[in-house]
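Amino acid chain
________________
===
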Amino acid sequence: MYSLVLKISLSFLTLSSVAVANEAPAAEHGEAPKEGAKAEAPPKEIKSSEDSYAVVQARVQALEAKVRSAETEIQKLITEKQQTKDSARVAEIINQMKTLHKDLNTNVKEYDQQRALLKYRYPEKGQTEKREYERIEVKSIEEMETQLSLGNSVKKTLQKVRIQYEKPNKNEMGHTVAEEKKKSPESAPSIVDPVILKK
């Protein structure tokens, strides 16, 4: 027991003497610090694990929002490019799309890093809070254009179908015009009506 206490105190004294030896000599009052001496940095605040978890989680959410907004901005530029006929404006839109796509790629890479950090550094938080951050895949500009153009063609076709086969108009009583024609005796004879045969 005594030898254990002696070993601990000896190691403590050794570490403290090494720490004192590594310190730069203090400058005299009024003198500038020597060139070899480093300026004292303010002590770093030790943050709790809750604080750093909150910071990483906020970064992940902010990056996800940036990615989503960049995707919507690119989609807006794609629709504008499809509607624009001026070649100079189209070239300008393409350049904007390229820069936004580069930013999107960097944001997605950073998002994946922060998401992995959050997942593996704080696994117990994920179990208690049921958080799920999905992986975001970056599509190329061409893929986004084809997806958007397919969506637009489906919307246009759906509008044409709705115009062509719209719901029948209703009259004042709430019956459709087609129902009234069915009820009129002139259009179709009923079973109780006599059948007149002509020779």
